[in-house]
Amino acid sequence: MRDVAIIGVGLTRFGERWEHGMRELMAEAGIHALEDAGITSKDVEVVYGSTMASGRFIGQEHVAALLSDQLGFKNIPAVRIENACASGGSALRQGYLAVGSGMHDIVVVGGVEKMTDVTTGEATTALGGAGDQEWELAQGITFPGLYALMAKRHMHDYGTTEEQLAAVSVKNHLNAVNNEYAQFRKKISIQDVMNSKMVAEPLKVFDCSPISDGAAVAVLAPLEIARKYNDTPIQILASSQASDTLGLAEREKLTEIKATQIAAADAYKRARMTPKDIGIVEVHDCFTIAEVMAMEDLGFYEKGKAAKAIADGETALGSKLSVNTSGGLKGCGHPVGATGIKQAWEIVTQLRGEAGQRQVSGAEVGMAHNVGGSGATAVVHIMKRAN
Amino acid sequence: MRDVAIIGVGLTRFGERWEHGMRELMAEAGIHALEDAGITSKDVEVVYGSTMASGRFIGQEHVAALLSDQLGFKNIPAVRIENACASGGSALRQGYLAVGSGMHDIVVVGGVEKMTDVTTGEATTALGGAGDQEWELAQGITFPGLYALMAKRHMHDYGTTEEQLAAVSVKNHLNAVNNEYAQFRKKISIQDVMNSKMVAEPLKVFDCSPISDGAAVAVLAPLEIARKYNDTPIQILASSQASDTLGLAEREKLTEIKATQIAAADAYKRARMTPKDIGIVEVHDCFTIAEVMAMEDLGFYEKGKAAKAIADGETALGSKLSVNTSGGLKGCGHPVGATGIKQAWEIVTQLRGEAGQRQVSGAEVGMAHNVGGSGATAVVHIMKRAN
């Protein structure tokens, strides 16, 4: 495998983008990314596109070919990747492999989701397709209900409290205030979270990431030619992925995401690093409990210790390990097919030193962690600014 | 790139499989394929799964992880590929690249679609997601209507007749009679097609591939170790893909699929072959006109000449070029996410000499041609029995 770098990134503002359809969102993020990389559409050899449930949200499948057309790529191979909420991370990994294997030089990876054309109820049902439809959802549980089960068990086993979960949301909303692309740019309090409506006990509205529209695009190239295009290429040191059962009932434990543990172990090994080497990380906080479990499964905390540490401010912006500086899924928004690529956008932006008021000083190595469903897919990327 | 071989294939019977859900279909085809390859689930390093619209058909996204779990693969990377009706061919190509690049040895590629849990109207609407939802389908055209436009223009420009289109269906139904996995094993006549109900003029019910349930799985390995598992590995000589606009209105011509032409040209070049070298081909006959256009775009006939040639029997089973020996999408059935891999199954079965009563004698080189939507994706594979 040869070394791979991200040479360009582009993002749309996340949120309720009533005025734009999916193709406009794709184009908006894509044009940013191509300009950022200093390339034209003619340079691109293959494109991976990711959406989770565009068929159910807007009736559109076959979105990679549409992305290719919208960005003016002429007749190149276009491949849609769908791995639920880990679609973006999975697409990024396919792009990484396409470049790393030597098959292609310039590869574009783009994720998008247009979720606000349906009702919240319809969106929640569509998102249930990330879990086991036949053995879970069809039996009556909702997708938030799956994470509520995990939260309940985590509280039972480790004494995690609802206030500690709320602290995840408070931190991520605070980070989002300084992200101009974020859906929610408003500071909230623990009490705001505690007072918000119950969705699936113990998870309240402010424990849950929102329904969002948005797109994110990244441009990859071999590191050896990356500087031809860009002065600050960000090297992907590791790109690792693992899977697990769709259904929670078939897992060994409810309080961990085994796919995250396996993907992280593989990533640390490939990058020749340990959790101590990571300065910033975007973790998959689809629900507050998900960030707590991620911090443990990624090796930053022992199992059962993360919730208190987060509540104590150990992962706030500018601490030794800054977590979800973009605002995470909770604060920045969660257009599901775009999220994994937006995470990479944030890490690239931080490692370049271009994160403005939310810049973490001295960030050297970053990680992006993207989860599909209730943990049936996990993708972990480790990146650093190329020397 | 190192040489890649298919060492195992498995298929379910295609049709209205009321008694089985998607996970059972996956398992049925998958177990066949693993047994055929002489491997166990522990040998598999990565799995690509393909469905087109499982979200809309049965509410289930995230199907590659489900496939991985159903086949007992433990926590390996699982990636769903969706490129409309070319999802299967696109997944096969990703598997080919994963092995060919040297990243992985044993890779499983599985396609499935469970289409009969919804009404025919709902299924047709879901399939419309293969075209341009915003600029075509939302304006009122149906998916068969898109191919009807192409048929009308082909008839106008080249004098193609409805009876010639009907001959495609008659040939493919005849081939399906001897395929025990086929949905329709009944000989039909030109008059049967002409008398069937109009769907979108000039296409009648018997010009259209059916709504089907089914799954197909293939196992890939480097050619250099393929004989460790299998006495008759089938080498993939070329795996090529191209894209085009989703919308017909943006294409240069209605009578050709440019993505097919580009993918075919690339495949011939990589395989160092011409159309004359191909003895059997599975082409994407989602509608009868699609087979006519494919025979021209793949270089077997000049533009405008294929329809008469097919009607004259030039592509019947056992002729110099046997086309859609499996029965094609029309006769064998078209569970959209499985079709591209089923095409490879047929070519492998023929090249091994295991096709029973539909065996083409002396078949040396085969091609599989898979199209997404009205031509926004095309994938072409060329295969031969390894020496």
Please explain how this structure is put together:
- Two copies of one chain form a homodimer.
- By secondary structure, chain A is α/β, with parallel strands linked by helices.
- Chain A folds into two domains: 4-119 and 211-234, Thiolase/Chalcone synthase (Peroxisomal Thiolase, Chain A, domain 1), CATH 3.40.47; 144-207 and 237-385, Peroxisomal Thiolase, Chain A, domain 1 (3-Layer(aba) Sandwich).
- Chain A is built from 14 helices and twelve strands.
- The first copy, chain A, has helices spanning 22-37, 54-58, 63-70, 87-100, 120-127, 143-158, 162-176, 190-195, 223-229, 258-271, 288-297, 306-311, 328-332, 336-352, and strands spanning 4-11, 46-50, 78-82, 107-114, 198-200, 203-204, 213-222, 234-243, 280-282, 322-323, 365-372, 377-385.
- In chain A, the strands form two sheets. In chain A, strands 3-2-4-7-1-8-12-11-9-10 form a ten-stranded mixed sheet, with helices on both faces.
- In chain A, strand 5 (198-200) and strand 6 form a beta hairpin.
- The mean pLDDT of chain A is 97.
- Chains A and B meet through helix 2, helix 3, strand 3, helix 4 and strand 8 of A and helix 2, helix 3, strand 3, helix 4 and strand 8 of B.
